[in-house]
TrEMBL record:
Pfam families: PilM_2. Residues 15-183 form the SHS2 domain. Transmembrane segments: none annotated. This is Pilus assembly protein PilM. Coiled coil: none annotated.
Amino acid sequence: MINLGSLFGQANPPLAGVDISTSGVRLVELAEAGKGELLLARYGFEPLPRGAVVDGNIDNIETVAEAVRRLWKKTGSKAKHVALGMPPAAVITKKIILPAGMSEDQLEVQVESEASQYIPFALDEVSLDFDVIGAAPNAPDDVEVMLAAARREKVEDRVAIVEAAGLSATVMDVESYAARAALERVVAGLPQAGKDKIVALFQIGSQATHISMLLDGDTIYEREQPFGGNQLTQDIVRAYGMAFEEAETRKRSGDLPENYQADLLGPFLENAALEVTRAIQFFYTSTPYTRIDQLYLAGGCAQLPGLLDIIANRTRIACVQASPFTGMQLGPEVREAQLRHEAPAYLVACGLALRRFG
């Protein structure tokens, strides 16, 4: 059995969650603050040059490893163990039913046998892991097992990045799972902890938007569509003749000509709202569900001024930014005002960091 590093494994403290995306590398390090509370010890972002990561694939390991090294130095992190995420499109997950009472070795053999039915690659090309979820519904003599598999080379690329930066990859998760783990803390703040509420999570990244619909913590719908912040960056490049990296930096800082909001940002926000409303309508027409009770925005684009308001107005759904650090104590290195603005971009990194606590 080739272990996914371990996708479902326990992590030994201290542990840093590291989210490697097209736009850059994000780090979150959490600690216990006593009485069941958590402390955000440090967090940070290091941008990546265009082409270093494309469609979730690492195209330049050394460039990304150097960004990780800079991020460690910038944040002052002393953590040597890292939790990493794989893009959802790179991981095959499947719930399977197996007889209860098997030993770990027997489970491994059975899972490997079952995996060959669902994985379109030779098993020796795959990193494979599984987790026993619990008793199978309506079948007390069986257990439900989550199977996860990814191309070994894609896992090894991420491991090679942190090893080149002098770190150790302890946990490999799926980015969408990590985001949902972080969102659970946010949803817990809803009335009755969100019981019986349908919650929508839109993670708008640089290249794609990942959509998850959840009911009582269970995923009832998931989809990804090709819309992200790079479209706005490209508009800035064309309009003002900037290099892509400069356009991205100035987009984040807001340091752009006066006509930027009216000519570029406004139309982009309209398109983003249209993408969200279309995705919601597709959810309604392709599932038995006809409502969404709460909508959360996350990802780098969630920080764009005006996006939250225009989506709330178009969808007529309660809409807020997903801040995964709500209710946490803040370390002395964390600036609260800056964190309030940047928090929605750290949903995945925070979910990965939470793996320290099992």
